[in-house]
What does this fold into?
Amino acid sequence: MHAFRQILRIEARLYLRDLPTLLTIVGLPTLILVVLGFIPSLREPDPNFDGQTFVNYFAPSLLVVTLAMVGVNTMPMAMATYRERGVLRRLATTPAPPAALLAAQLVVALAAILASALLLIVVGRLAFDVPLPRHPLGFALAFVLGTAALLALGLLVAAVARTTKAAQALAVPLFLVTMFFGGVYLPRFLLPDVVARIGDYTPPGVQALLDAWTGASPQPLHLAIMAVIAVAAGASAAKLFRWE
It folds into this structure.
């Protein structure tokens, strides 16, 4: 436990030291929301969104930005960099269990994700009257499972990528696909129906987040698929991970 605390402290310092990346991860979704909120027409109720404003409708999709950046981009890139520079090999020769580094990475990633989500929700509520998630338990469950699925995919990328370039080659397409099916590049109502339906079942399961945010119960199938992906990708990552 002492070794884990030491590694966690170091990882947190490294994370905080890279201020531009940290600000992007935590603040970018809120910045996008603020920019959209300054457009008057997007703050008007629209029958296309069941009487909601576009800002209210789009806010849950912005959660995907941070989840994708952390889960399938920054975390696997950091692990691949550690492997390429021999950090993992040297750590394996110390009394500290190498798994402590993975755990520390996950804790720091989760902290950044939670900070970003809270900032988005608070600013959306105070500045643009975006309702708080109306099904809190369902939202929390969808958020946790969607986050777990993306982090597990990120760990899988970190497990199979031996170099930073290899990690980038795997992470960037996965990041772009996650953002696309998550309705970030184009709002989901503009996507073809088949594409939107695919997005329902791909991490982080944005439809479950949308349902819970607007008051409906997330569909059990959406949640179950996120759980299966998290378990399958996490187990595969654990099996394939090499410290050198």
Observations:
- The chain is about 75% helix and 0% strand.
- The radius of gyration is 19 Å.
- Residues 179 and 185 are 7 Å apart (CA to CA).
